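Fill in residues.
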C-alpha cells in the first residue's frame, strides 16, 4: 500500500478544486501516488458516532474514520483542531508552523 491514502470523496474534491473546471488532466499524476480507501457501512456508522461526539461535520468525521481505517498516524488537514488526538491518530495542520 502507498504511504499516502485518501477516501474517494477527497479525491473528487481534489479533482474539482485542482482543475477548477478547466478540464485539465494534470491532477492524475498526484492521484496515482495515493492508495484509495474504500468506505463501507461500518465506517459510516463510526463516522456518525464521531460526528455526535466531537464538534465535527459528518464529512470531517468520515475523513478521520478513513485515516483510522488505514492505521494512519497523522492526518494532515486544515479543517480540524491541530494537536488533537483520536486514538493513535494525530491531527496536524499542514499550514501551521512546526511546534
Amino acid at each position: 500500500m502507498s504511504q499516502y491514502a485518501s477516501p474517494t470523496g477527497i479525491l473528487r474534491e481534489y479533482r474539482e478544486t485542482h482543475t477548477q473546471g478547466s478540464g485539465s488532466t494534470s491532477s492524475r499524476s498526484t492521484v496515482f501516488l495515493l492508495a484509495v480507501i474504500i468506505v463501507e457501512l461500518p465506517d459510516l456508522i463510526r463516522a456518525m458516532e464521531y460526528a455526535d461526539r466531537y464538534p465535527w461535520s459528518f464529512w470531517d468525521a468520515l475523513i478521520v474514520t478513513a485515516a483510522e481505517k488505514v492505521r494512519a498516524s497523522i492526518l494532515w488537514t486544515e479543517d480540524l483542531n491541530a494537536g488533537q488526538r483520536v486514538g493513535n491518530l494525530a491531527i496536524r495542520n499542514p499550514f501551521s508552523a512546526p511546534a
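The first helix runs from residue 8 to 19.
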